[in-house]
Amino acid sequence: MKTTRILLFALLAGALLLTSCQNKNVHVVLETTMGNIELKLYDLTPLHRDNFRALVKEHAFDSLLFHRVIRDFMIQGGDPDSKYAEPGKVLGDGDRDYTVPAEFRLEDGIFHRRGVLAAAREGDDVNPEQRSSAMQFYIVWGRVFDDEGLDRIQLRLDARTDGRVKLTPEMREVYKTVGGTPHLDGQYTVFGEVVSGLDVVDAIQQVATDANDRPLTDVRILRAYVK
User: What would the pLDDT profile of 165-182 be if each residue is shown by its tens digit?
Assistant: First the structure.
């Protein structure tokens, strides 16, 4: 009986340890030509977390560009066509042959504040379910708003989401102090955040770009790996 109890205890401890490991936030490092960015992927968005982690383990992001950069807005990467793109080539249409179901978690405090990781997607006209791109992602920079500016954003959100998305007092405070892109809330899935290297994101979002928002000097993800 004593041996049986010891075995059962060991099995239970192992199961608890496995559960703990499975629930731990995944961390991914993007080594770029301008420095390293470490990302934490949220457990509350498991479909996006697992998809991004799988792509990283496939080395799918290695050598890809940040092909779309808009100052005071965001930096976007993940287009597989960018790996060998000639200078000046228009990018942004490359992807895998699947999409990821939307995972909006505004009720859990996951929104477009500065430094979050989110999934790009096709527009509502061809993608009414607002499913995410398999590969393309962006990291938010944005700007700081005042109350008047947030009131205008709320009117835009009301029109775009039929009143579904409301900026809470807590969200408004973050947008007035930290900054971000509130007009995207509840429409694009946020699934992680920068935990180290926000200064690198800042540097990238300030680079010179062409008329299609592609950096004039390539900003490349040298490799991505799960930490």
Answer: 999 999 999 999 999 999
Chain-centroid distance of CA 165 in Å reads 19
For the chain, helix (H) and strand (E) counts, in that order, are 5, 10
Residue 215 lies in a domain: yes
Q: Specify the pTM.
A: 0.90
Count of the separate structural domains present in the chain: 1
What is the DSSP pairing of strand 190-196 with strand 116-119?
Answer: antiparallel
CATH of the domain at 161: 2.40.100.10
Cβ burial, residue 146 (10 Å; 0-12/13-18/19+): exposed
In total, the chain counts a number of residues equal to 227
* Residue 71, domain extent: 25-226
Give the pLDDT confidence of 1-25 residue by residue, as tens digits: 444 444 433 444 444 333 434 457 8
Ordered alpha helix ranges (H), the chain: 2-22, 46-57, 147-161, 169-177, 198-205
| DSSP SS3 for 175 | helix
